[in-house]
Amino acid sequence: MTDPWIALRRFTQARIALGRAGHAVPTQALLDFQLAHAQARDAVQLPWNINAFAGQLRDIGEETLILQTPVSNRSEYLRRPDFGRVLTEESRIRLCNFKARGVDVALIVSNGLSSTAVERRGIALLQTILEGLRVRQFHIAPICLVANGRVALLDDIGSVLDARVAVIVIGERPGLSAADSLGVYLSYAPKKGNTDAERNCISNIHPPEGLSYESATRKLLYLIEESVRRGFSGVALKDEMDGLLGEGKPLIE
């Protein structure tokens, strides 16, 4: 008997219509699952080569600033999410003494929960974001690179730089369909103590299966411009941008 779900497999990365081998799934499906699980674990556990990443940015002419959170290793990062939300005192002092203050956009990058995502996709996404910001003549602070950061770190750094908007590019929690997905969060008038309700998120950035770099950048630029125009971000900022799904050919006619 043919599984009616088989025709739907081309529309999704979800594990559907895997077939059967007796009372179990086929060997190939089991091996694929085990591989995806291993890749997800590696994405979380592997450290981020932040110096090499900074070197790649310098090679394309970007100024960077490497900062630290109090997190000492990946195990502590998972156990103490609060440590990933703030800078060390040394990094805070260094940032306070930095020349770039009162900027339009503070741009932060962290490996978050997927070093794989930042290593594989971070540079390409940053290039499209930076190009878009400069076309719109936003004054951008040097890119802050922070290993083992959480989303709320953007408010800590953004407030120190007195930025109008803070943006963080961060590795998303890996799943069994994608271990290398990036997320982008923004906060208008960033300050410590802001909650998730005061931030906007663009997630699932991992082309070709997920959102493209260009689509993510267009959405981010729209949200930045609207937050500056209206004076707030988060759930109060309604997304009235035209949808991004019309770019390609429809999967279902």
From TrEMBL:
Localization per record: Bacterial microcompartment
Catalysed reactions, semicolon-separated: ethanolamine = acetaldehyde + NH4(+)
Entry GO MF terms: cobalamin binding; ethanolamine ammonia-lyase activity
Keywords, ordered alphabetically: Bacterial microcompartment, Cobalamin, Cobalt, Lyase
Organism domain of life: Bacteria
Enzyme Commission number(s) from the entry: 4.3.1.7
UniProt xrefs under InterPro entries: EutC, EutC_C, EutC_N
Keyword Transferase applies: no
Protein residues bound to adenosylcob(III)alamin: V151, E172, C201
Family: Belongs to the EutC family.
Biological role stated in the UniProt entry: Catalyzes the deamination of various vicinal amino-alcohols to oxo compounds. Allows this organism to utilize ethanolamine as the sole source of nitrogen and carbon in the presence of external vitamin B12.
Protein name: Ethanolamine ammonia-lyase small subunit
Organism: Candidatus Methylumidiphilus alinenensis
Name of the coding gene: eutC
